[in-house]
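During the practical work, I selected for study one protein's amino acid sequence and its backbone structure tokens, as given directly below:
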Amino acid sequence: MKDVYVITGGTGGMGKATARLVGKKGTVLLADISEERLAETKAELADKGITDVHCLTVDITSPEQVEALVQKTASLGDFKALIHTAGLSPTMADSKRITEVNLVGTGQLLDGFLPIAAKGSTAVCISSMSGHMVPKEGPYTELLKKPLLPDVVEKLERFTQGDSGAAYSLSKLGVILLVEDQAWDWGQKGARIVSLSPGTINTPMGRQEASKQPQMELMLKRTPLGREGEPAEMASVIEFLVSNKASYITGTDILVDGGTVANMPNHS
């Protein structure tokens, strides 16, 4: 049986860069909301010699579509990794939709894939350095760990006040907390779960945010390495995290931000 690497947000900059690496090791299953972009990405990967690629149109906020993704994964081979890059940034949607996709969607994916996780399986959930800019302990902490509660989006609106930037930061903190919280359950299957928090990355989504948010430029000026990260740099860390070389890393977040968070004025 072949190892299957599932990549949500598979048509984005980070998803594609990761597919180019893990596609050399096994079967790739790309999940994204756009059928058209999936077809284009599959063709792009084929041009790079990555040919064992399957696609599925998935809205991660739909439990039925997530279940279809899990079933498709199981039908293709052994579940090796869930690489969850799908998400919405602050300029892409309102606060409720951002919470729904980034937090609830992540909860549904982890809930769906846990039953097929086995020894050697790994989930890598993409968070963000923004998740490090919110106090980890707050009145929202326990709520963020329970994304499948029926009214979680409404309850979190009390803290985001309809601000999409606040919803983004809280939802990404939620991803970090979920990974910590669920490490035990994944560990019982011999599986691992980690989050990765990128800084400012040179992707279409990253460029969109930079063009519409002046504070992005300020963060870049405060980045010790003095530049944006590249999708390939994120992909190489993901490739390591889903490999056996990272076999003792679980329940933690890996911050890959060029030193931005360490150099923020309010960082202690």
In short: The chain has a mean pLDDT of 94. The radius of gyration is 17 Å.
